[in-house]
From TrEMBL:
Source organism of this protein record: Sulfitobacter brevis
Membrane topology: Multi-pass membrane protein
Keyword Cell membrane (UniProt): yes
InterPro entries according to UniProt: DoxX (IPR032808), DoxX-like_oxidoreductase (IPR051907)
PANTHER family in the cross-refs: INNER MEMBRANE PROTEIN YPHA-RELATED, OXIDOREDUCTASE CATD-RELATED
Subcellular location: Cell membrane
Recorded family membership: Belongs to the DoxX family.
Transmembrane region(s): 20-39, 81-102, 109-130, 150-169
CC terms in the record's Gene Ontology section: plasma membrane
Keywords recorded for this protein, A-Z: Cell membrane, Membrane, Transmembrane, Transmembrane helix
Name this protein carries in UniProt: Putative oxidoreductase
Length: 178
């Protein structure tokens, strides 16, 4: 039994010595699973041409404010500054935050902001688009809102706690300032 415990403790020490591995794999998993998802979602919200960065498409309002957009007869001009600012900020966030996580720049802040974004996205899907939330602690692991997004958030929590890891701009900037 002592040999088993000694082997276990040695293995644990080796794993704990690879502190760089978890944040690196978390960023890799984010890039491979969620980066393009968010960028494609952001692309659906852009208006025409370069001015589309400031004048989102009607679909952006339909995605972010579905019930309010329906209530105004799908007329974007009926919305005020608040709605416009939220749609533009949400659209930009879908590009900027994943890019920051990808390169490892301001990773903790970007990951924390992405968690907030995913929470708002999930609430909009459930209450605005009437998507089925699913349930935790059931036998199904494929609820698109609660199950999948809980895993997305867990991945981002790793980055909030551990940072970006050694292969990042955060680490490079830290060594410059040190």
């Amino acid at each position: 039994m002592n040999a088993i415990l000694t082997g276990y403790r040695t293995s644990v020490r080796l794993i704990e010595a690879t502190d760089w591995l978890l944040p690196t794999l978390a960023r890799l998993a984010f890039a491979s699973v969620l980066l393009i998802y968010f960028w494609n979602s952001g692309l659906t919200k852009l208006g025409d041409g370069i001015s589309g960065l400031w004048t989102p498409s009607a679909g952006a309002y339909a995605q972010i404010f579905p019930r309010a957009f329906e209530a105004v007869g799908y007329d974007t001009d009926a919305f005020g500054f608040y709605h416009h600012a939220v749609v533009v900020a949400g659209t930009w966030a879908e590009f900027v935050l994943p890019a920051l996580i990808l390169v490892g720049l301001m990773t903790r802040i970007a990951a924390f902001a992405m968690i907030g974004f995913i929470v708002v996205q999930s609430l909009t899907d459930i209450y605005g688009h009437a998507a089925a939330a699913g349930a935790w602690f059931d036998r199904f692991a494929d609820a698109p809102v609660l199950d999948q997004r809980a895993l997305w958030i867990l991945l981002l929590i790793v980055l909030v706690i551990k940072g970006a890891g050694p292969f990042s701009f955060d680490r490079a900037l830290k060594s410059i300032n040190a």
